[in-house]
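To: structure desk
From: M.T.
Subject: fold request, one chain
Message: Could you run this one when you get a chance? Sequence is below, nothing fancy, just the single chain.
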Amino acid sequence: MSATDNADLTPITVITGFLGAGKTTLVNYILKEQNEWKICVLENEFGEVAIDDGLVAESLDAPEDIITMDNGCVCCSVRGDLVRTLGQLAIRRKDFDAILLETTGLADPAPIVYTCQTNPKISDNYRIDSIVCLADCKHLGAHLDEKKPDGSVNEALQQVAFADKILLNKVDLVNGEEKKALETRLKTINKFATVIETEKSRVPLEKIMGLNSFNMESILNYDPGFFDEESEKKIHNLELVQSVGIKFEGNLHAQYFNMFMMDLLRERAADLYRTKGLLSFHGQGDTKFVFQGVHEQINFGPSQKPWAKDEVRENKFVFIGKNLDSKELTASLMECLYKEDKNVA
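Reply: Done. Structure tokens follow.
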């Protein structure tokens, strides 16, 4: 899909976060107080977060409860089938600047991402713009520490791992030292997400919407420092979930790289929450390739801009997941480099 076609799609921002993190306050702010954006808020009916009583009529008989606000925003209660709800809204989607999908308690947004990317009814009208985790600064640490009986990853860790943006809410309820410690921890789990501090869920919407931070090209916007390893040398990472950034120069051997990715996804897909890559392949001229994935669902293709004439051909990879070994991943990826002496026919 071209950049022009992509720009015509209505962006969906997926909001995750625990009960009490401030999602109700954020939704009410969007629907009642701000006037710059026309947002369609899709509220998960099975969530325990209800939009406050002053907004929702006591009895609405429509199969999908759609309420239009004074500022042009719309609130809609999703009852079961997200595809049907988005399909019904498609005819009106141009009325909105964006759609905000509130997903109470949903740790893994992969099913939503998969639906939006593979169902033609959805992918012809919408695109995932970003995944935003709303976190309670005072209580997030306890949520991250929660131990699951079977040793699996808890919901808070998953929500942080999947996020493009983390809204660190209620920062006024902690001191500077507590906040700094939490931010350091968040960077260990997912150093590629932007952390935005908020009070009472007030955030400039342009910081979380309309940024296209969930596209394959987003890796091009990362600060080069994200791929440096100095933090790894200084602290011993004890987090169950962590982020790994890898970079090295050279051209990859397409067949070797494809085999590496197939093996990795076959063996570790459940453990890999987010993956991204910027690649240079032998024999592909100036074409720059990018990919991004959620679990085993990978989107791969040429970047909108080719390698510049004097640009260093530096491959970059992002892995966010459970039990990742940075040295092992780096060694395996470097084995995929094209080497002239090995590949002479």
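Reply (cont.): The radius of gyration is 21 Å. Let me know if you need anything else for the meeting.
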